[in-house]
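[Discussion] Sanity-checking designs against the backbone

I'm trying to build intuition for which residues belong where. Below is a structure token string of 392 positions. I'd appreciate it if someone posts a full sequence so I can compare it with mine line by line.
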């Protein structure tokens, strides 16, 4: 049931993310500004200064320190938040492992931006794909509305006692972060009902002091702790589906869980994409359907935990599928393609092609995706770079 106190306005993706953190009632924010993330934390700082948000903003000298601060506050049982992009995320790498290894349900926004050199501030998912094995859940947003709502859902999922893992919520640089769209600001009372206060089962208690993340040995519990993280990541699949369904029922949304399928019921060919490329692909699917072409779209929302079973089921009856990646795994195609190949191996014999597109913020146009479809129909499979210039 949709809340009667929601209100509609126009805002950028970064402002939408800031409102998501506000509605989630975060109590501590620590971040270091980096383009194109900067306006997220500027907006939150403004909210605190204007008494619109009851939270502490901790200014630090680096992204590494920002996440270290958030890790510390979460250990104290305080719902905390940070945001970054690109090289800032790379600078956080050590602390990403600390956050997940200490089982802290932090939510962090990442505005996807290319990794240099050369310097490039535009949309590219290489920054977060480089962090896919740090123990964080990862969700790629398609719209400003989803960017706001994912912050709220993210805390609910991460704080579940069967999960207790941090979550990254991604938006494409400038395409979402600095572009204005209609966004519904959720009613605070309804969000409070959906998302209770953080109840961390192992928070610091000064009356019962103990060490956290201390020394371990090969015969200790290190290996078992890592396996438990893997098991919790698998359990998160069910939690994601359940919490997305509950959010949809409460707020009148129609989000998929791990994936979203579009016109796949009778599709002979499938296009698989993440983020805003999926928006263009959905439009192209409609164009091609009007021409009698049986093509559909699978949009991957959650890259971690990866939806192997859901994609396998969706591709069962197609003739071929193409995976569009806005990043590249050097020597092996796109990272999404690599994950799907791993999931299909020995289970389903579907020709699969990798399409590298949009690197460094290059536009992924309607014609590009139409060309991808024609390549799928031709029966060729392999790795293809879309709209790439000759290197001189």
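Best answer:
Here's mine. Compare freely.
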């Amino acid at each position: 049931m949709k809340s009667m106190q929601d209100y509609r306005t126009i805002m950028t993706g970064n402002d939408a993310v800031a409102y998501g953190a506000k509605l989630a009632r975060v109590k501590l924010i620590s971040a270091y500004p980096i383009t194109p993330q900067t306006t997220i934390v500027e907006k939150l700082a403004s909210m605190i200064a204007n008494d619109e948000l009851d939270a502490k903003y901790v200014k630090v000298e680096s992204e590494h320190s920002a996440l270290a601060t958030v890790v510390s506050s979460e250990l104290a049982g305080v719902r905390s938040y940070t945001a970054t992009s690109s090289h800032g995320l790379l600078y956080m790498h050590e602390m990403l492992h600390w956050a997940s290894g200490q089982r802290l349900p932090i939510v962090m926004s990442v505005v996807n931006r290319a990794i240099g050199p050369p310097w490039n501030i535009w949309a590219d998912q290489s920054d977060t794909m480089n962090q896919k094995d740090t123990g964080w859940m990862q969700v790629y947003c398609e719209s400003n509305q989803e960017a706001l709502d994912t912050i709220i859902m993210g805390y609910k999922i991460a704080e579940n006692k069967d999960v207790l893992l941090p979550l990254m919520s991604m938006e494409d640089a400038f395409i979402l972060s600095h572009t204005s769209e209609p966004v519904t600001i959720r009613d605070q009372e309804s969000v409070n009902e959906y998302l209770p206060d953080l109840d961390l089962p192992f928070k610091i208690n000064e009356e019962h002091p103990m060490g956290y993340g201390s020394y371990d040995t090969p015969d200790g519990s290190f290996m078992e702790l890592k396996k438990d993280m893997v098991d919790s990541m698998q359990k998160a699949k069910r939690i994601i589906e359940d919490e997305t369904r509950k959010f949809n029922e409460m707020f009148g949304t129609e989000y998929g869980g791990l994936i979203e399928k579009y016109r796949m019921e009778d599709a002979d060919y499938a296009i698989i994409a993440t983020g805003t490329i999926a928006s263009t692909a959905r439009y192209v699917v409609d164009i091609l359907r009007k021409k009698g072409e049986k093509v559909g779209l699978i949009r991957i929302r959650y890259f971690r935990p990866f939806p192997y079973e859901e994609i396998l089921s969706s591709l069962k009856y197609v003739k071929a599928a193409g995976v569009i990646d806005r990043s590249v795994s050097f020597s092996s195609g796109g990272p999404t393609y690599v994950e799907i190949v791993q999931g299909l191996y020995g289970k389903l014999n579907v020709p699969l092609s990798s399409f590298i597109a949009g690197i460094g913020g290059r536009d992924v146009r309607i014609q590009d995706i139409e060309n991808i479809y024609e390549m799928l129909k031709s029966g060729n499979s392999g790795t293809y770079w879309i709209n790439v210039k000759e290197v001189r």
